[in-house]
Amino acid sequence: MPLPKIAIVGRPNVGKSSLLNSLAGSMISIVEATPGVTRDRISILLEYEDIYFELVDTGGYGIFDSRELSSDINSQIERAVKEADLVVFLVDIREGLTPSDEQIARLLRKNGSNVLLAANKADDAGMFSRAVEFMRLGFGEAVCVSAANNLNKSYLLEKISEKVADIPSEKPEEAFMKIAVVGKRNAGKSSFVNSVLGEERMIVSEVEGTTRDAVDVRFLKDGQPMTLIDTAGVRKKGKMADSIEYYSYTRAEKSIRRADVVLFLIDAVLPSSQVDKKLARMVTDYMKPCIFVINKWDKILEEGYDAEPEDFSDYLTETFPGLRYAPIAFTTATEGRNISSTLDLAKELFKQSTMELPTSKVNEAMEIIKAQRTGKSDKGVFPKIYYATQVAVQPISLLVFVNRPDLFDENYQRFMLNRLRDLLPVSEVPIKLMFRQHHSERRQMGREKKIKNRRE
């Protein structure tokens, strides 16, 4: 069932993102005292008094953007207004009524929007009287709030709930899977998200760094609710121009940490960079299932590059050895090519990463590993595996009982992981190995220590 949709609209820097963060109780949108930080439509699900609704943060209407994205930003806002069941029209009580406020009011009246007027930055009750002048906008008395101080937050939520109370609403299903879309700047992440949704939710431009926030978008795939997280394009830390880009960088890292599966977008015609390698390290460190999505594949075909899909497999294995098990998809996001099959592959990786393996199958694999490799000895003592059991999922985590954990060096562990992927139905996802000394070995070491002590 569709939820009531509430759009927060206002001129630049009136505190729309701060208000969304305040109502959400966490920092969803980047907040910065720079007009135009929010460009795409950021949305979250909220509940108040058993009424569920989607709250949408938009960019500042009428902003002049230094990267010539102003018309795209305004287009996103106009689309949000048309789709909204209620518009929270936010104004700045400190600055008072401005021509930009009046311009937005005309847009809302033209659209016939259901409007709730809110005056932000009313940091104490003594400022509330200033809101009288906003009645000239024609939307009644403004609700005075302070997003920074959470003043009148509950009252605003109450007024929103009253305005949408007649619209059917029920608790939405939890997302079956969260998919983070990551990559360096201008790799096609927003085009990918728009293609999945079948609408221009994200601003798409050849200008690098168009997306700044990490944007969660819910959608249905084969009747199952999923969440796509479109992240800002990452650049090298030394080249970050301002704190906004730094927030975007940390947001991308957080998105990887939150995700069940990561879609790692690679521009088909550009060589990998240090940024790509850093993102790959993040994915590896957090042990997330990952798909290399080679985007803009149409350019390879159209421009006559001498490259085949198998060439990319060798190249990615060499460049990102820590993700050699990750599958590869080839897409043209702007045309919607292979988007659905990439999502199907993400579902398969999610299935693998949440699989509970029978202990018997795990130990059959361990027996094969023992037979194929003995490992290096330490004073005549070789690595010995007793048995293993799965203790967790996401990532698949195996606890291996052995004679001495220190004998299982990096090379032996790498061999074990490669063989486990061959032998178990988890070939394309991370596997975490943990080693513990078997109790019989501990008893034997204890006896040997006692004998040694007596001799001394």
UniProtKB/TrEMBL annotation:
Pfam family of the protein (one): MMR_HSR1
What molecular functions are annotated in GO for this chain?
A: GTP binding; ribosome binding
Q: Which organism is it from?
A: Sedimentisphaera salicampi
Picking any one GO biological process from the record gives:
ribosome biogenesis
SUPFAM superfamilies, A to Z: P-loop containing nucleoside triphosphate hydrolases
Family label: Belongs to the TRAFAC class TrmE-Era-EngA-EngB-Septin-like GTPase superfamily. EngA (Der) GTPase family.
Q: Where does GTP 1 bind?
A: 10-17, 57-61, 120-123
* Role: GTPase that plays an essential role in the late steps of ribosome biogenesis.
Q: Which UniProt keywords apply?
A: GTP-binding, Nucleotide-binding, Repeat, Ribosome biogenesis
Residue numbers binding GTP 2: 183-190, 230-234, 295-298
Complexes and interactors: Associates with the 50S ribosomal subunit.
Corresponding gene? der
Where does the EngA-type G domain lie? 177-354
This one is known as: GTPase Der
Q: Does the keyword Ubl conjugation apply?
A: no
